[in-house]
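Supplementary Methods, section 5.1.

A reviewer requested that the exact input to the structure prediction be made available. We therefore reproduce it here, unchanged from the version used in the analyses.
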Amino acid sequence: FPVTIPAAGYDLEVVIYSGSCGSLTALNCADNGSGGSAETATVSTTNGTTYYVYVPISQQEQQQVHLLSL
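The structure derived from this sequence is encoded token-by-token as follows.
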């Protein structure tokens, strides 16, 4: 299952987790290291499992709106 964060003009990352609060497990991440291009991370999913997507951004970009493709 791919999660894509579109290009934004600055370096992005995406991390996909599963688990519960305080016990999350990183399943996959993407950071191609080049400023501004899209990022895609893919995981195999299981019915009934909750997944969390983390997109870290710096303080100066907090007001940006991002579309998340699932």
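The chain has a mean pLDDT of 79. These observations are discussed further in the main text.
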